């Protein structure tokens, strides 16, 4: 920077301005003269009278002569008052530039600048160290420094010459005291802080008022390099450069850039009047005033300054003794402080500034015993080192030491604090994100890269065989060679560096360090530099290009820092891990070649439960958390790159070991087992709740990814992005530099080539094995270590729920293990003592029941096994009643004998939901209506429409309530089935689980027999066969012939014959009777003849006389039959239970009462499953407004193809007009046959999905939908519409939604067949109501309730092309677009609407990486249930698993929110409450006789259709 300018050091050394004439005389003469002359001057200053205070010196000649005496007086010993009086006089006279005083001689007042310049040169004598009376000298020096401070601050008349003399004066006195080796308790040690502080303050004042010329800057830099062995020098430099940086950032990046806060006492060092240009110029010069701070790691440079050399030659001439000087023991601490200062500057430029700590951090606790080597050292002083260029593109030469075969010997001390926390934050604070307007990585590295790269490789070693591989490219050799050198020293003189140091062929061993006296602990500074580099590269913006030379040097630093084979440098390792959580998420070119090294480091950290060797440096929990973050970002790599071979160019080049055993290329897929080993080991040893939850999320990620990969039968998925993003080749490179041994791991891992074959065949190398292993691990810990911790328990249950949905064939015993463990978990939590029962505990039990439901619905065949069914039902019974009926093999308590005592009503509700799931959903989902509706889509209007009734009145239904929980709507209708007549009744069953329609028929035969039986037809008579047999004409007698043979008796003769008693009169009558009889006989014979003739002509059988069975009955009182057959018509069923508020088991409802069908409609509107809404946005680079974001999804050309693929992986498209489920807005949800012809035509005219960027799924005509047995989700992609700003159909304002809710009762009375909440809502609003959301809304009558559909949880998913744009996502502006119309109040007459805050809305950001993977960021999930799995902040997921993991995270977020909400009731509870309300309002209170009579009466006019 100043190579063309000359230094002023020679001028300073040759300046004799501090010499007096009296120095030419004998010492006693000068002493006597000084004592005599100074005393009256001092007495005049100390006098209180105004006359005596006036100076006795009047002429210029007098003043100059007196100053010669004062100059000599300042060199006298401190045993008298002379020196003090000289200081008093001079400190008074130099104030002539500040204010006029009577005590100041007039010549000085007239020409203050000239005299002050001379005085400053004379005052140099005071700062020459005296052997005795050090305390007095310290106080006098402090007085002079304070006076100089005041002079510089308050003087307004100082000339440039005076400023320059003042600066040279300060440089001279600093050099006098600070350049020499530090003497403990000496003058330099006591004054160092004040000296350097005054120098910097005056220097900044000079920059403001009279900017120093380049020679002064060059001189200051050269002289400051000689003082760096004082901690105060680096400390003060760190303070002032931070204060300057704070000012610099204000005007460089503007007010929006995060401010770099420094302590007020540091900030005031920078004059307020210093303008921006001056700040910038001063900042850059002061930054480089310390020269290269990496020099502090090399005592050879620090101990070869001129003053050190003087002492070396004057003492013994032995370089060894000078290298062992006690003051050099502080170099590791000073080096660390310098690196911490540079680190603070880097953080400030990145926008993640941390407050600078003034307390000196502890040195790392490693005390390294350096091995001895026999070699003689050359004492020739080294050449001065020149400052190198700021860029890092040129290779420079650095001294280094020869390699040694002796490994280091490490001992440990204890330490209570950590110097490696980066940035300085507690474990509860989130890691700050870099500022969006931060400079580029190249810019930061242009400033600080050279220092940081060199510091990151301090005391590392590179062997001569580094470039023995001819295939290594020349450019890379040049890059590596740039690490070899940064110090120029003679070949014979060098510093011994320990085995983790750089060493090249021109380095020789150094025997000078005594292990007991020189703790060579430079790891802290190196660790700080490595951590800073990691933060710089992690701050890379999306699409930003970084120079390959910087990437290469950075990777080399990481490779060295992550070495664990010979020696583990734990401070460096910990610092790299702590500051690299986003390293694999930043799209760094070639970063994946470091995966094996990071895996080796994680194998050292994560399976180690205690991390006792790291506790001295860092918080173990924070270290494990950072390690888990890195693990999360590496998990998808083996599956993603598959058999691609990763070439690590530097492996095997840092040790002299024979690498022939490892000459096998490393494929990414071969790293999978190691990653899974680390993951499982981490889970087995982790104790922190947050860390454990992150691991659980990662387990579901890897299991699902493995399952999907096996499902598609693919081993690799190459990136569609930049093919050069990964540095890989197929030729033979080894992994010899990677140690596979895990410290503290439960199972040792060795290089793949050395591991036995069976060791690679783990039980989790397949998706099913990994799933089984995960189930075993989680279930084992769920019922042991984790069951007391709510956050881990919830995450473990969510993981089990996710594992249940993984489509992998698993043995039934493993599935039963999961179910049994959840059941055992519920039993344990329910059996805890009463004092432990809290809302949180009950939330854990509720979550366990929900997990149980997921497993049962995903694997319903498990309940086919008796033991599993019994176990599940016992748990349900425990949840509902509070105890099990069967507590042992002998004792059984029946339901009626138990007193219900559930753990809480929430637990009881969850158990009832589980029972409903078992009885209603298992094996019955999806229903005939499809997954969108688990209920029947039929209601009263539909049934009447398709019945044979002429009237469409709902009064044809009979309404009954069973057990106060089920409403039966019975339709008795003639079905006209002449072929197979039977009593039929159609029943709408409305219960807690929904609405179901059944048609029931009464048969007297089982279904199987009826299936093969034909309709009943009576058998006809057989035709007569007259030609069969012999016909006999026999006259039949009234009595047998034997009667005639019986003789008469007297009694027989007692009745006379007719002729014996006939008279004439009787004769006439008798004759007449005979004639009549004759006529009758003739007539009957004629008729018989005619009949015979007719009969002979008639076919057989005669249809007129044939017996025909009566027709089947068409009219049945089927409602009465059904109730009777089920036992509900007994007198006991109609009586109210004694001493109970419960109604009878059977209740009739009066459907004629006003409002009855409105309430039935309300009941139908209550959903049977939780419903969620997800709003998806697409954010292109640089966008900040909501309109820009909404317009992105209008065309497929505006979005990435993977975004459309992602949308379709979340759910399936549905037509909003025909969809019977949740659509994202209440106005269009839960429809039944709502589409007419015009709407169908509109659907046909819609834009094809191929022509849209996803905006077609904006909820207007189409939406994305997903549903399972337990939940339903609508995915809406809001798009920009012109009317979206004035309450268009795309989204109702909150006022409109309230208006729609108020209109609900009247709207439900409309005839169109629909279950939608607001059918034809826009037609029922006036124009003013549509266009003016501020219009006063109508109110329901008091007491009229609205179905409580809330509270709801809305989730936002944002696809961001540039990760830095997350900071600019306009969440507040987009909140109106995510309205669902759900009313959260229980009574619409009171406005209790809760406003949605942007902090309450969970947001999942998805950022596509160039590798084809996706980076996740989750924000807005707050509260005690903050961390939700499987997606956690910083995770990287594959394209295959993205949709599943996002959907599962959304489901878990909403479940957590419902657990946290005090106002949430499960759907079945809401429905049950509504049924109870309907019973209370519409109960038909009839006496038993009246009730029985009503069963035989018709409920409406019935007639058949013509």
Q: Quick one: overall form? A: rod-shaped
Strands in their spatial order, largest beta sheet? 11-12-13-10-14-15-16-17
What portion of residues is helical?
A: 40-55%
Q: What summary fits the major beta sheet?
A: 8 strands, mixed
Number of helices: 52
Distance between the termini: 109 Å
| Main structural class | mainly alpha
Radius of gyration: 50 Å
Task: Describe what this molecule looks like in 3D.
- With 1506 residues, the chain is mostly helical.
- The strands form 4 sheets. Strands 11-12-13-10-14-15-16-17 form an 8-stranded mixed beta sheet. A 5-stranded antiparallel beta sheet has the order 8-7-6-5-9. It has a two-stranded antiparallel sheet with strand order 1-2.
- Strand 7 (984-991) and strand 8 form a beta hairpin.
- The longest helix has 34 residues, at 1064-1097.
- It is rod-shaped, with a radius of gyration of 50 Å.
- It starts with 8 loop residues before the first helix and ends in an 11-residue tail after the last helix.
- The C terminus is likely disordered.
Task: Summarize the helices and strands and which ones pair or pack.
Blueprint: H1 9-14, H2 27-46, H3 60-73, H4 82-93, H5 106-110, H6 112-123, H7 134-154, H8 160-178, H9 187-209, H10 214-224, H11 231-253, H12 264-267, H13 276-287, H14 299-302, H15 306-315, H16 319-323, H17 331-350, E1 367-369, E2 409-411, H18 441-456, H19 474-481, H20 523-538, H21 548-561, H22 570-578, H23 595-605, H24 620-634, H25 637-641, E3 645-646, E4 666-667, H26 672-685, H27 689-712, H28 757-760, H29 767-782, H30 790-804, H31 812-830, H32 839-858, H33 866-881, H34 905-921, H35 940-945, E5 957-962, E6 966-971, E7 984-991, E8 994-1001, H36 1007-1012, H37 1050-1053, H38 1058-1061, H39 1064-1097, H40 1118-1125, H41 1131-1134, E9 1146-1149, H42 1156-1165, E10 1171-1179, H43 1186-1191, H44 1201-1210, E11 1212-1215, H45 1237-1244, E12 1262-1267, E13 1272-1276, H46 1294-1302, H47 1304-1308, H48 1327-1331, E14 1354-1360, H49 1371-1374, E15 1403-1408, E16 1414-1419, E17 1436-1437, H50 1442-1460, H51 1467-1482, H52 1488-1495
Parallel strand pairs: 10-13, 10-14, 14-15
Antiparallel strand pairs: 1-2, 3-4, 5-6, 5-9, 6-7, 7-8, 11-12, 12-13, 15-16, 16-17
């Amino acid at each position: 920077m100043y190579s063309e300018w000359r230094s002023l050091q020679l001028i300073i050394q040759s300046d004799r301005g501090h010499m007096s004439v009296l120095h030419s005389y004998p010492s006693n003469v000068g002493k006597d003269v000084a004592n005599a002359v100074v005393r009256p001057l001092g007495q005049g200053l100390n006098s209180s009278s105004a006359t005596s205070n006036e100076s006795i010196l009047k002429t210029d000649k007098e003043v100059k002569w007196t100053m010669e005496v004062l100059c000599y007086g300042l060199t006298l010993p401190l045993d008298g008052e002379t020196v003090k009086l000289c200081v008093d006089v001079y400190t008074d006279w130099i104030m002539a530039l500040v204010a006029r005083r009577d005590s100041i001689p007039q010549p000085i007042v007239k020409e203050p600048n000239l005299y002050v310049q001379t005085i400053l040169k004379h005052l140099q004598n005071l700062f020459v160290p005296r052997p005795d009376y050090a305390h007095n000298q310290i106080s006098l020096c402090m007085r002079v420094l304070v006076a100089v401070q005041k002079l510089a601050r308050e003087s307004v008349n100082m000339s440039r010459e005076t400023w320059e003399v003042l600066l040279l004066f300060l440089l001279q006195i600093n050099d006098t005291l600070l350049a020499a080796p530090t003497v403990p308790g000496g003058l330099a040690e006591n004054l160092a802080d004040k000296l350097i502080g005054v120098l910097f303050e005056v220097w900044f004042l000079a920059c403001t008022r009279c900017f120093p010329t380049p020679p002064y800057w060059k001189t200051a830099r050269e002289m400051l390099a000689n003082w760096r062995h004082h901690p105060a020098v680096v400390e003060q430099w760190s303070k002032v450069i931070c204060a300057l940086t704070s000012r610099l950032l204000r005007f460089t990046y503007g007010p929006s850039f995060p401010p770099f806060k420094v302590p007020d006492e540091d900030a005031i060092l920078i004059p307020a009047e210093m303008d921006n240009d001056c700040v910038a110029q001063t900042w850059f010069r002061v930054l480089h005033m310390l020269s290269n701070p990496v020099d502090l790691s090399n005592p050879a440079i620090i101990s070869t300054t001129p003053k050190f050399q003087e002492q070396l030659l004057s003492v013994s001439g032995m370089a060894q003794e000078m290298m062992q000087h006690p003051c050099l023991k502080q170099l590791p601490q000073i080096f660390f402080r310098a690196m911490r200062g540079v680190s603070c500057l880097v953080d400030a430029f990145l926008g993640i500034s941390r407050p600078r700590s003034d307390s000196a951090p502890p040195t790392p606790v490693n005390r390294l015993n350096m091995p001895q080597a026999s070699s003689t050292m050359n004492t020739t002083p080294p050449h001065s080192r020149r400052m190198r260029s700021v860029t890092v593109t040129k290779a420079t030469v650095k001294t280094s030491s020869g390699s040694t075969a002796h490994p280091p010997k490490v001992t440990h001390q204890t330490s209570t604090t950590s110097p490696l926390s980066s940035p300085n934050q507690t474990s509860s604070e989130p890691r700050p994100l870099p500022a969006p307007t931060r400079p580029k990585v190249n810019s930061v590295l242009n400033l600080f890269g050279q220092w940081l790269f060199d510091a990151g490789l301090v005391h590392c070693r590179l062997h001569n065989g580094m470039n023995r591989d001819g295939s290594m490219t020349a450019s890379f050799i040049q890059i590596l060679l740039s690490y070899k050198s940064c110090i120029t020293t003679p070949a014979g003189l060098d510093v011994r560096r320990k085995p983790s140091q750089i060493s090249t062929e021109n380095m020789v061993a150094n025997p000078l360090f005594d292990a007991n006296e020189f703790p060579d602990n430079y790891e802290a500074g190196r660790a700080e530099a490595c951590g800073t580099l990691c933060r710089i590269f992690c701050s890379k913006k999306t699409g930003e290009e970084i120079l390959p030379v910087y990437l290469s040097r950075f990777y080399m630093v990481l490779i060295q820092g992550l070495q664990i084979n010979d020696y583990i440098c734990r401070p460096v390792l910990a610092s790299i891990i702590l500051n690299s959580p986003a390293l694999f998420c930043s799209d760094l070119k070639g970063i994946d070649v470091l995966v094996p090294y990071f895996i080796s480091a994680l194998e050292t950290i994560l399976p180690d439960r205690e991390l006792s060797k790291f506790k001295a440096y860092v918080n173990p929990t924070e270290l494990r958390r950072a390690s888990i973050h890195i693990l999360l970002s590496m998990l998808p790599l083996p599956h993603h790159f598959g058999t691609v071979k990763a070439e690590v160019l530097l492996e095997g080049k840092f040790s002299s070991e024979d690498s022939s055993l490892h000459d096998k290329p490393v494929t990414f897929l071969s790293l999978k087992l190691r990653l899974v080993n680390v993951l499982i080991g981490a889970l087995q040893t982790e104790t922190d709740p947050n860390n454990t939850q992150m691991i659980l999320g990662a387990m579901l990620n890897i299991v699902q990814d493995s399952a999907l990969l096996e499902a598609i039968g693919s081993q690799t998925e190459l990136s569609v992005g930049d093919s050069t993003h990964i540095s890989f080749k197929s030729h033979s490179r080894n992994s010899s530099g990677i140690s596979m041994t895990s410290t503290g791991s439960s199972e040792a891992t060795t290089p793949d080539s050395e591991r036995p074959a069976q060791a690679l065949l783990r039980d989790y190398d397949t998706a099913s094995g990994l799933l089984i292993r995960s189930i075993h691990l989680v279930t084992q810990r769920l019922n042991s270590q984790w069951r007391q911790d709510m956050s881990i328990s919830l995450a473990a249950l969510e993981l089990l729920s996710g594992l249940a949905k993984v489509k992998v064939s698993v043995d039934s015993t493993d599935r039963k293990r999961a179910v049994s463990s959840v059941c055992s978990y519920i039993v344990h939590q329910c059996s805890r003592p009463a004092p432990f029962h809290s809302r949180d505990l009950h939330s854990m039990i509720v979550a366990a029941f929900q997990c149980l439901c997921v497993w049962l619905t995903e694997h319903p065949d498990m309940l086919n096994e008796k033991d599993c069914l019994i176990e599940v039902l016992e748990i349900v019974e425990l949840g509902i009643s509070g105890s099990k009926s069967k507590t042992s093999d002998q004792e059984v308590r029946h339901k009626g004998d138990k007193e219900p005592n559930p753990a809480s009503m929430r637990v009881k509700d969850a158990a009832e939901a589980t029972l409903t799931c078992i009885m209603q959903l298992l094996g019955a989902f999806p229903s005939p209506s499809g997954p969108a509706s688990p209920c029947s889509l039929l209601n009263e209007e539909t049934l009447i429409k398709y019945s044979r009734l002429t009237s469409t009145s709902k009064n044809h239904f009979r309404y009954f309530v069973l057990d106060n929980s089920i409403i039966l709507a019975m339709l008795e209708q003639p079905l006209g089935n002449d072929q197979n007549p039977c009593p039929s009744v159609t029943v709408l069953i409305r219960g807690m689980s929904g609405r179901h329609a059944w048609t029931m028929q009464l048969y007297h035969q089982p279904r199987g027999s009826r299936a093969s039986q034909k309709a009943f037809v009576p058998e006809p008579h057989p035709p007569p066969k007259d030609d069969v047999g012999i016909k006999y004409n026999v006259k039949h007698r009234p009595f047998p012939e034997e009667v005639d043979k019986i003789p008469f008796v007297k009694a027989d003769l007692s009745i006379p014959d007719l002729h014996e008693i006939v008279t004439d009169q009787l004769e006439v009558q008798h004759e007449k009777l005979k004639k009549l009889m004759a006529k009758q006989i003739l007539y009957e014979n004629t008729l018989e003849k005619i009949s015979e003739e007719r009969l002979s002509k008639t076919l057989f059988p005669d249809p007129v006389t044939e017996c025909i069975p009566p027709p089947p009955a068409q009219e049945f009182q089927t409602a009465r039959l059904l109730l009777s057959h089920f036992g509900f018509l007994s007198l006991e069923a109609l009586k109210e239970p004694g001493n109970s508020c419960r109604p009878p088991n059977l209740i009739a409802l009066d459907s004629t009462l006003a409002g009855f069908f409105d309430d039935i409609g309300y009941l139908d509107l209550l959903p049977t499953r939780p419903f969620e809404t997800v709003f998806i946005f697409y954010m292109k680079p640089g966008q900040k407004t909501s309109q820009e974001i909404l317009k992105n999804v209008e065309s497929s050309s505006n979005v990435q193809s993977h975004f459309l693929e992602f949308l379709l992986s979340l759910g399936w498209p549905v037509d909003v007009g025909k969809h019977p489920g949740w659509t994202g807005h209440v106005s269009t949800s839960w429809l039944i046959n709502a589409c007419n012809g015009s709407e169908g035509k509109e659907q046909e005219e819609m834009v094809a999905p191929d022509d849209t960027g996803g905006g077609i799924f904006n909820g207007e005509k189409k939406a994305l939908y997903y549903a399972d047995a337990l939940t339903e989700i609508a995915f809406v992609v809001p798009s920009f519409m012109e009317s979206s700003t004035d309450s268009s159909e795309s989204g109702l304002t909150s006022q409109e939604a309230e208006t729609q809710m108020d209109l609900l009762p009247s709207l439900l009375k409309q005839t169109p067949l629909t279950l939608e909440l607001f059918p034809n809502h826009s037609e029922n609003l006036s124009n003013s109501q549509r266009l003016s959301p501020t219009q006063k809304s109508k109110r329901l009558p008091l007491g009229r309730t609205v179905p409580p559909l809330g509270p709801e949880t809305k989730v936002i998913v944002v696809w961001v092309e540039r990760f830095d744009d997350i900071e600019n996502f306009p969440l507040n502006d987009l909140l109106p677009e995510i309205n669902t119309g759900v009313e959260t109040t229980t009574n619409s007459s009171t406005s209790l609407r809760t406003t949605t805050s942007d902090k309450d809305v969970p947001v999942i950001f998805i950022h596509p990486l160039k590798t084809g993977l996706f980076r996740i960021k989750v924000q807005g999930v707050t509260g005690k249930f903050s961390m939700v799995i499987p997606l956690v902040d910083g995770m990287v997921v594959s394209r295959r698993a993205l949709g599943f993991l996002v959907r599962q995270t959304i489901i878990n977020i909403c479940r957590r929110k419902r657990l946290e909400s005090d106002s949430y009731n499960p759907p079945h509870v809401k429905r049950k409450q509504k049924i109870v309300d309907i019973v209370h309002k519409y109960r038909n209170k009839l006496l038993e006789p009246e009730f029985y009579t009503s069963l035989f009466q018709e409920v409406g006019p019935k007639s058949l259709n013509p």
